[in-house]
Amino acid sequence: MRTAAVAGLSVLTLGPVVVAWGVWSYLRPASPNEVAAPQPIGVEVRDGQVAFVVHLVRCGPSARAVHGQRCEVVVGARNDGNHPVRVPAGAQLLLADTGARHLPVPEEERLPFGTLVPGEAATAILTFDLPTESRPLAVQVHTDPYTEGQAVRIGTPLPLAE
Predict the structure, then answer these.
(1) Which of 18, 104, 116, 148 is the most buried (most CB within 10 A)?
(2) What is the largest CA-CA distance in the chain?
(3) Which of 69, 58, 65, 41 is nearest to 150 (CA)?
(4) CA distance 104 to 110
């Protein structure tokens, strides 16, 4: 009985802490180490059992962007593990020179990753809405919202074709 009470109290206490940590990890500014990503576009990076490749980044002014600039990122993901894994497209981030972390625009996601069985791969086209004065520096890919992720250096994005 006593063990169950301690376990229940721990869940009630740690649950909000874990949620707060997850929110904080997305809202805090990107660190210089994240923005200075060592891997360039086209190089495979790994987060957990998933291998990611950022294939293409296109950015430019857009009338469809609320903040003035739209970026499209083409990302491939492959499950190299032994168990199915759900890779949420919304866990991926675009890091800007302002230190901001941008989440994909949900209604603009095309071909989301979904659940990948072992050996399965998928490609997603993610759309980000950035302020006109922001310059995207890196894409941070994540197996899920709670992993550390891996950053991929963008360099100069290609122009956006509208």
Answers:
(1) 104
(2) 64
(3) 41
(4) 11
Could you give the CA distance from residue 80 to residue 86 in angstroms, rounded to a whole number? Answer: 13
Q: What is the mean pLDDT of each run of 10 residues along the chain (162 residues)?
A: 43 43 43 62 96 97 92 96 94 94 82 90 94 95 94 91 74
Query: Bridge-partner residues for 77, per DSSP?
Result: 52, 122
Q: What is the pLDDT of residues 140-161, one digit of tens each?
A: 999 999 999 999 999 988 988 8
The rounded distance, in Å, linking the Cα atoms of 26 and 141 is: 13
Cβ atoms of 87 and 143 within 8 Å: the answer is: yes
- Backbone φ, ψ for residue 12 (5° rounding): -65, -35
Instruction: Please give the C-alpha separations between residue 45 and each of 31, 75, 149, in angstroms, as whole numbers.
Output: 19, 11, 9
Among 73, 93, 94, 107, residue whose Cα is nearest residue 143: 93
Rounded to 10 degrees, the C-alpha dihedral 51/57/62/66 comes to 40
Assigned token pair, 74: 């083409």
The amino acid at residue 146 is Y
Helices (H), the chain: 2-27, 32-35
Lookup: tokens for 71: 């970026």
